[in-house]
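User: Hey, my collaborator sent me this sequence without any context and asked if I could get a structure. I don't really work with proteins. Can you help?
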Amino acid sequence: MGFEKFDEAGSGRGRPAGADPMISIRKSGSIGVNQAAIEEYFVESDGAVMYFDEEQNQVGIEPVDDKDADEAAYTITKTDSGGTIAPKAFLERFELIPEVTTQYDPELSDDDLVVIDLDDPTGTHGSPDDGDDEEEAESE
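Assistant: No problem. I've predicted the 3D structure and written it out in structure-token form, which is a compact way to encode the shape of the chain:
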């Protein structure tokens, strides 16, 4: 049997283009947003305001037009495979930077926040001493 060509456009690192929305908190102090999550929650937003619910242990992300829409907004840097939010000060303030990049399934709350439940991760990537996971969530 010969080689079979893998030609699913937009598949990134092997995940189908139609993959479920995923958001990752990276050990580098940024947040990765895969393309499916960009399309579902952030397609018309270039900014994000960060929230933390300590009691529920959840992160909320409010999509906003751009970083100028709110004094607390961060820019969403978008690529063909997803996006990145770099709220390192937020993540440090609430001690949310993981030892390994950790992935979550986001949900939209009643008050239009994109919410990830830190008690319910869907997976991890890399290891504590592996420094090359910067673009993982975008392509996952």
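In plain terms: Residues 23-129 form one domain. You can pass these tokens on to your collaborator as they are.
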